[in-house]
Write a structure and sequence with these properties.
Layout (H helix, E strand, L loop, with lengths): L1 H12 L14 H13 L1 H16 L1 E2 L9 H7 L10 E2 L2 E2 L5 H18 L3 E3 L5 H12 L5 E4 L16 H5 L1 E4 L11 H11 L3 E4 L10 H10 L3 E5 L4 H5 L12 E5 L10 E5 L2 H11 L9 H14 L2 H23 L3 E2 L8 E5 L9 H10 L2 E2 L1 E2 L14 E5 L1 H5 L4 H16 L4 H17 L5
Parallel strand pairs: 1-13, 5-6, 5-7, 7-8, 8-9
Antiparallel strand pairs: 2-3, 4-10, 9-10, 11-12, 12-15, 14-15
Helix pairs in contact: 1-3, 2-3, 4-12, 5-12, 6-11, 8-9, 13-16, 16-17
Bound molecules: D-serine (DSN).
């Protein structure tokens, strides 16, 4: 039934210059693309049109998501997808790779320039894949890794039991200071001296504050461990100098390319150490992946080119200003910001002070019905389970990409509070949904 409704939505608008019943205007190439797909597969096109409409008419506050440029978006849908190119530029296992060598070199060179380091591997399909290669290159199965657990803001590929990291390695946790909710470097050093890890991981999925990479390296050096910085969340801020760089401190840096960096969905490994660089190349291919996604590598090259422009620094600065404005607005409305605020693109909101019965799961559901997309997130020492939680993680990269600034962030804070303050009351959610549509219409997504 839902598929049928989507089909009707799509068919009703196929001949117009818009894609959906909501009159969401697509950029010309996307419009042609949808027309082309629709002519061959109306069912798939209908679903794709519905998703375009969802993105254009809702407020995206998931801290790990972003809206890419139309250039990056369309590079991903190009003929570069047709090629197998196992190996690396100049050393491939297939013929016909001349231009794939060129595009991969372009991506690698731009990544090195962007992060000011000597080595880049642009082939990892994702951040988790980049981490698999880093673990394989630097460790033996059973080695000890010291990391922040997912419940405190870490990532599943940093040691969660069912993940490869927790399955094949001995994971020891460090944690945040329970009072300040900040990294406690002295406590981390103490645990490192006790457990003598082979690798220490810094870089997180839900930590709103600056990371002291230098201090982490000092700790790693004391126990002769590798330091891995997973900068997936903050890569764009690092690239533009808005967050300190993990170089020259980390032995290896892994990241995704699609969060604050605003590139295609994918991974990246960086290093300044020639020996580690060789290991990383071997552990990506043939160690853990086969054919690279050359259409994604082309889009990475383009995204890195965008991030090298001065406008990207302005964009990154605005992400942080917007996060502060949103955090201030929520704080004034009675919510508690974990660690007291934010230095980067995200914040963790403790819902309890506003309403002790309010859960992250309910808030996420109610907000979605009002057109505000967030994810529930455990707060440090959350008494509720991960599928319920007492908090939300909010981020500003996507709204900043649409051109929104501090005044809109204050409006967004008030919309969030309207929905949560009314415990998701249907009439309130419907009213906020209209306000969200109006706000989104002022900042068109596809152009
Ligand atoms: N799922 C990503 C995030 O939301 O942070 C991490 O992989």
């Amino acid at each position: 039934m839902i598929a049928m409704m989507r089909l009707i939505t799509y068919n009703a608008t196929m001949t117009s210059t818009t894609a959906t019943k909501e009159s969401v205007t697509l950029d010309p190439l996307s419009r042609d693309l949808l027309g082309l797909i629709g002519a061959h597969d109306a069912e798939a096109a209908g679903i794709m049109a519905a998703e375009a409409e969802r993105q254009a008419t809702t407020l995206e506050l998931i801290a790990s998501e972003n809206h890419v440029s139309t250039t990056v978006m369309h590079a991903m849908g190009s003929w570069l997808t047709n090629k197998y190119a196992e190996g690396y530029p100049g050393k491939r296992y297939y013929g016909g790779c001349e231009f794939h060598d060129q595009i991969e070199d372009l991506a690698r060179d731009r990544a090195k320039k962007l992060f000011n380091c000597g080595f880049a591997n642009v082939q990892p399909h994702s951040g988790a894949n980049a981490n698999i290669a880093a673990f394989m290159g630097l460790l033996k199965p059973g080695d000890t890794v010291l990391s922040l657990p997912i419940k405190s803001g870490g990532h599943l590929s940093h040691g969660l039991k069912p993940n490869f990291s927790g399955t094949f390695f001995n994971i020891v946790d460090y944690d945040l200071d329970p009072k300040t909710e900040l990294l406690d470097y002295d406590a981390i050093e103490k645990i490192a001296l006790e457990c003598k890890p082979q690798m220490i991981i810094c870089g997180y999925s839900a930590y709103p504050r600056e990371i002291d990479f230098k201090r982490f390296r000092e700790i790693a050096d004391k126990v002769d461990a590798y330091l891995m910085a997973d900068i997936a969340h903050i890569a764009g801020l690092v690239a533009s100098g808005v967050h300190p760089s993990p170089f020259p401190h980390a032995h290896v840096v892994t990241t995704t390319t699609h969060k604050t960096l605003r590139g295609p969905r994918g991974g990246l490994i960086l290093s300044d150490d020639e020996e580690i660089a060789k290991k990383m190349d071997r552990k990506v291919f043939p160690g853990s992946q086969g054919g690279p996604l050359m259409h994604i590598i082309a889009a990475k090259a383009i995204a890195f080119g965008e991030a090298l422009k001065p406008e990207f620094k302005t964009y990154s600065e605005q992400i942080v200003k917007n996060a502060r404005a949103l955090a201030d607005g929520l704080n004034e409305a009675g919510y508690r910001l974990c660690s007291g605020g934010t230095d980067n693109h995200l914040m963790l909101v403790d819902l309890q002070p506003r309403d002790k019965d309010l859960t992250g799961a309910d808030a996420e559901k109610w907000l979605e019905s009002a057109g505000i997309i967030v994810n529930k997130n455990g707060i440090p020492n959350d008494p509720r389970p991960p599928m319920v939680t007492s908090g939300l993680r909010l981020g500003t990269p996507a709204l900043t990409s649409r051109g929104m600034q501090e005044s809109e962030m204050r409006e967004v804070a008030s919309l969030l509070d309207k929905v949560m303050g009314a415990s998701g009351d249907t009439a309130t959610c419907e009213q906020v949904r209209e306000e969200v549509r109006t706000l989104c219409a002022k900042f068109p997504l596809f152009h």
